[in-house]
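Morning F.,

Quick status update on the modeling queue. The single chain you submitted on Monday has been processed. Sequence for confirmation:
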Amino acid sequence: MDDTFTSIHAAHIQEIHDVPFNVLIRPFPSELEEEKVLSLMETLKNSETKEHVPPVDVLWVTGREGGNYYYSFGGCHRYEAHKRLQLPTIRCKLVKSTIEDLRTYLGASTPDLR
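Structure tokens below.
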């Protein structure tokens, strides 16, 4: 597992958060390679190696009435591994974003966030 992974969105973000798994919004279905998911599950189950799994980038959007929304578009295999293991949190880099940023991904399907 390459723990030097960075993305364009979160390359400048150093802080990693343990985000409750159940607050992540994933608007698109994942295309998965089963071997990758299983490998990540094994890594996550081992307390000595679980920190080697790179955090997932999450767009953190504040709604117009102050609600917080956490959108995850990448990290499909990492997300699925956490889901199957029923882990309560997932390591994330929060990318402070706007509704306009979200519209870049969702277009006319962007919800009215409160």
